[in-house]
Design a protein that fits this description.
The protein is α/β, with parallel strands linked by helices. It has a single domain (45-88, 117-308), classed as 3-Layer(aba) Sandwich (UDP-N-acetylmuramoyl-L-alanine:D-glutamate ligase), CATH 3.40.1190.20. 34% of the residues lie in helices and 24% in strands. It has eleven helices and 13 strands. It has helices at 43-53, 68-80, 122-127, 129-133, 146-159, 175-179, 188-193, 205-215, 256-269, 274-288, 301-308; strands at 7-10, 14-21, 35-41, 58-65, 87-90, 96-103, 108-113, 137-141, 162-166, 184-187, 223-226, 231-236, 239-244. Strands 5-4-1-8-9-10-11-12-13 form a nine-stranded mixed beta sheet, with helices on both faces. Helix 1 packs across helix 9 (256-269), helix 9 packs antiparallel against helix 10 (274-288) and helix 10 (274-288) crosses helix 11 (301-308). The longest helix is centred in the last third of the chain and has 15 residues, at 274-288. The radius of gyration is 18 Å and the shape is globular.
Length: 317
Amino acid sequence: MAASGRVVVFGSLNVDSTSYVEAFPAPGETILSHGFRVALGGKGSNQAVAAHAVGASVDLVARIGTDAAGDFALSTLERFGLPTGAVGRERDAPTGVAQITVADSGENTIIVTGGANLTVTPAVVDAERPRIAAAGLVLTQGELPVPTIERVAELAADAGVRFVLNLAPPAAVRAATVSSADPLVVNEHEARAVGIGTDAAGASLDAWRELAASAVGHVARSVVVTLGAAGAVAASADGSWIAEAPRVEAVDTTGAGDGFTGALAAFLAEGRPLDEALRFAVAAGGLAVQARGTVDSYAPRAAVLRAAGLDGASTSA
């Protein structure tokens, strides 16, 4: 069953340059990598590809430069079968880049240079009003300028379209923007930045479930907190839930959170309840960490359904 609700993603589009090392260098230390790759990245494009991989129809609204990196980004999106009509090109700004280091432990460090992503302004959002109105769900992240994030939320509310906010990295958006998110998707560090679990270091999944539930209705309409190898929790007015992550050997955690969020958005857009979408998203994230890279690590729908152990034929209105 393909997703019936279209996902519109407003987000960053970068080209990732990733070096693989035994361990991270100390300050002032020079080390040699044992591998290197260039790939599509940026939270917006990552989540768009992840949503598409599990069956959603996706529009990505983004900006890139007219440079070779932009050519690479477009060709990669086309390889995945994503439409590129809403990806504009800017002559006066380079394509965004991310410099990533992945240690043999699977952990990573990332430095992002926004480039053309910073030209995704509220005016760009206004021009996409018809696309928003036709969407089943609108998704954005913290890598865009704050006024742009806030405008996406406003137009989604005007159109009566579900708004999902992945506040990563944390951005100083208005409380009204966060409160309209359904859900707000954050990891434990980002959760603390918005006042959820400020004293929850080392807390259990069940404790985080209660914290998420306590934030429903005043921090956001619904809340999802990702907790790495432990799994994730979610809460809405209908209840609160835990989804434990599968025990797997992590090869590369880069982009796994985006794989989770893109899958979550896709399953919500097709009418799945939050608890079911949560389990699918955790399965998608667990599959992603078992392969190197970002977008190339996202598993197709059939694999995610099998890993989640849920019936892929049923849906909820």
